[in-house]
Amino acid sequence: MNYWPLLGVAVIVIGFALRFNPVPVVVCAALLSGVLAGMPIPALLALLGKSFVSSRMLLMFVLTLPAIGLLEHAGLREHAQQWMGRLRGMTLARLLIGYLLVRELLAMLGLTGVAGHPQTVRPLLAPMGEAAAEKIHPGLTDGDREEVRAVAAATDNIGRFFGEDVFIALGAVLLIQGFYAQHGIELTPLAIALWALPTAIAAFVIQSVRIWLFQRRLKRRASPFPTGQET
Amino acid sequence: MLRIEYAYWLIAAFLLYTSWRKARERQVYCAAFWGLLGLLFATGDAVLAAQQAGHELPAQLAGCAVIALALIAPRMRRKAHPETASASARLASALRLGHKLFVPALMIPLVTLVVALIGEHLSIGGYALFAKPQMTLTGLMLACVIALVAAARVAHAPLLQGLSEGHRLLDAIGWAALLPLLLAALGQVFTQSGVGAAIAALAGMILPEGNAFLCLLVFSLGMVLFTVIMGNAFAAFPVMMAGIGLPLLVQRYGANPAILGSMGMLCGYCGTLLTPMAADYNLVPAALLELRNPYGVIRAQAWSAAGIFIATFVAMSLLVFR
């Protein structure tokens, strides 16, 4: 067993720990691992180029930017915030938990590309979340606002990840089935997908509770201990 | 027929436009970065086709371009972004346009949804509208174009202004946009150079003999840890399964393969929530939402990830050895 390529992993860990720019760190790690595994340099370059080019779909989100940018210029975020402020009974927790539910159900149907950070979180969910947080705590600090946005992004991730495995025709389930088939164990996709359901439910419950706790924390910050209580 | 390649050409055009804007602003490194990336997108199909035909040179040149991008990236200075409209102008526009502003924004998910659901059946004169592979992404491309046209009409702005506003957002994301692709390439190199096999061998060494529960714990934690390193549960799964899951848990201790596979993969997803290596879920959103801390999203979801991992592990240990 050749353990030397593991040094590539060490480069990644050290690079992130020292907060170097991740782009050169990642490329260095790839080159180092490849060289230590005994790959010739031309083959390594070709592998790097080919794998980079074949994952171009990961930059699809760039296409949403012109439309979103134009709408933001015309006041989309301001409108989302104002509208949120007028909706009675709509709290931060209800907004985020509602989004979590919809996102998870869509992912279960295999529709993971429908929502996402550039399409829905930045233009709609995050500004609405900020407005809903302002209803609780009118004196939001910049730090609080960033926290609301981060929780909105986390909610999107969790809804997507733990919904998608319940859908039978998606990558993960097929990967699991394919792995077992290679090793002589035949399973139907449905038999695998079914077992993702308990985690999907647990993820929904856990993230909902955490959203609710976050809302309660914001409420606490809004009403600090009453000041006139000295005896 | 609409194919995913058209989306790549559109992205290439947008990147080259951004590069041209940067060159006019005399920001040389930014111009070179987006220009080079645009060229990689424009020539991507040709590179892959040449590779298929056995010509290595284009792929090697692409590899050199990737290294050049890595050398340029640290020199890109992210500057504070002057908004193109003042806060009061945006508020006035928001009051004037009202709910109309939502229409183009909601068109992006809605058109994507429609194409994903019924795209297969859409045809004009027996000629299919959408190519089968990557239909949802092709739908997303169409949705973005339609939304841009709709946004220009709603805002009474020229289409070209959309490009210029898009360039402002792309500039705010900066080199973080590149990370998902680089990490995907890193995963390929790690796989080819045997990093996975080495990790599985190390995990096997620390494994206690004859204790199925501890073995399951090492397997689940290994899925999390290896996903944190690789940024992708799909890369971790075959390694941990071949090293521990199949030979020990399934074949020696009689674990149910369907439960082990499904829940083991989900343990890996908990790792995805924790790692900067999953750049498109954790670092790019932090840049998109303009958080000062690039790890802000990871921090917001870390405790959820821990809770979901514990719940999944408990369920798995109760169910898998039945």
Order of helices and strands of chain B: HHHHHEEHHHHHHHHH
Overall helicity of chain B:
over 70%
Gyration radius of chain B, rounded: 24 Å
Q: Total number of helical segments of chain B? A: 14
Straight-line N-to-C gap of chain B: 51 Å
| General form of chain B | globular
- Tell me the number of structural domains of chain B: 3
Most extensive protein-chain contact, per-chain counts = A-B, 118 and 149 residues
Mean pLDDT across all amino acids of chain B: 89
Which features does this protein show?
heterodimer; A: 231 residues; mainly alpha; 2 domains; 71% helix; globular; B: 322 residues; 3 domains; two-stranded antiparallel sheet; 14 helices; 2 strands
Note down, in words, how this protein is organized.
The complex is a heterodimer of chains A (231) and B (322). Chain A has 231 residues and is mostly helical. Chain A has 2 domains: 4-54, no CATH class; 57-222. Chain A is built from 11 helices and no strands. Chain A has helices at 7-17, 22-36, 41-54, 65-73, 76-86, 92-108, 117-136, 142-164, 171-182, 189-193, 197-222. The mean pLDDT of chain A is 89. By secondary structure, chain B is an all-alpha fold. Chain B folds into 3 domains: 4-75, no CATH class; 87-157, no CATH class; 178-319, no CATH class. Helix content of chain B is 74%, strand content 1%. Chain B is built from 14 helices and 2 strands; from the N terminus they run αααααββααααααααα. Chain B has helices at 4-24, 28-52, 57-72, 87-97, 102-118, 135-154, 159-173, 179-192, 195-205, 212-230, 233-250, 257-272, 279-288, 296-319, and strands at 123-124, 127-128. Chain B has a two-stranded antiparallel ribbon. The model of chain B has no long low-confidence stretch (mean pLDDT 89). Classes of the chains: A mainly alpha (231), B mainly alpha (322). At the A-B interface, α1, α2, α3, α4 and α5 of A face α1, α2, α3, α4 and α5 of B.
